[in-house]
Amino acid sequence: MVNSLPKLSGQRILITGGLGFIGSNLAHKCVELGATATIFDCLDPRSGGNLYNIQEIRDHIEICFHDILNFDQITEHIVDKDIIFNCAASTSHSFSMREPWLDQDVNSKGMINLLEAIRRFNPDIKFVHIGTSTQLGKLHYQPADEFHPEFPTDIYSANKSVSEKYALIYATAYNLNLCVIRLANVFGPRASIHSPEFTFNNYFIGLALQNKTITVFGDGKQLRNVLFVDDAVNALILASQSDKMKGETFFAVSDSHYSVAQIAEKTVEYIGTGKVNHVDWPAEKKAIDIGDAVITNKKIKEFINWLPQCNLELGLVKTKDYYAACLDKYLR
Question: What is the dihedral of CA 190, 138, 163, 20, to 10 degrees?
Fold first, then answer.
């Protein structure tokens, strides 16, 4: 059965960045499946963590308010774990261009800390690292696959590319059991919807929920892949349970692509409020835009029994339902 998730009873799981969007949804699913889950997060405001994200499961998890830049703290919490999901990152493209050193610290040096801790103290752990589709930069062919060259156009994407390569080097050099799952424009409950610093489509949702105007640059015809967060979480969990994934990189993306304008229009339609306005491109935004981002998920489907199951429309309805009772917790 496609996306049939295994029980995780008895498995000890560490989720770095577990108070953030993807990490917290992953924590909820791990608890539901019976795992013993530990969240490792420093609540860096540049990374979108939110304590409310885990309020429903707080009594069922351990929370460590630590930083992946602290090697000793990582080591302390990695030694007795079976699986680590690395969701920790400084995730803002625009912030990375303003503060490249800080982005490098989290997204590159933090990765080395994790890998060295694993190599020295728990080489048998399964490690799933989250990459990003924006590592590719402007596409040279479509649909892009895992063999596509990488020419990132911003510092965040460059550092994510570097961190992925660190992971693959360690997998080969030290026979570590790790894989990389690249995601693209994940949306849904528990996202940072309050700021354009984070994923654009979640910001669109936040604007629509407040009955505000969604601004689209230019004609907005550039294509994007968007994935509902439950599908992303399912891919991560299934990857952690399969030895076939060892030492490999995968795109876990949806089957459909939409233009930015379509995403904005559908957001307004299915959220039920807000409007869309087109404006001219700001020069600094146009300089790093990658154009169309058409990506294939063929490889991951061949390796594990995973399929994206929630389309954009249904995902928007589920997202609206989640925020209906807690919108104030996400507008800060």
Answer: -10
Contact 5, 76 (CB under 8 A): no
Write the single-letter amino acid at 32: E
Strand partners, 187: 228
Is the distance from CB of 177 to CB of 167 less than 8 angstroms?
no
> Could you read off the pLDDT of 116-161 as tens digits, one per residue?
999 999 999 999 999 999 999 999 999 999 999 999 999 999 999 9
Q: How many residues does the chain have?
A: 332
Cβ neighbours of 41 (radius 10 Å): 27
Per-residue pLDDT tens over the stretch 10-58: 999 999 999 999 999 999 999 999 999 999 999 987 788 999 999 999 9
Pick from 83, 22, 34: nearest CA to 60: 34
Cα(11)–Cα(198) distance, integer angstroms: 31
Task: Note the pLDDT of residue 278.
Answer: 95
Using alpha carbons, list the distances in angstroms from residue 237 to 129, 139, 148, 218, 298.
12, 29, 25, 38, 18
What span, in angstroms and rounded, lies between the C-alpha atoms of 292 and 269? Answer: 23
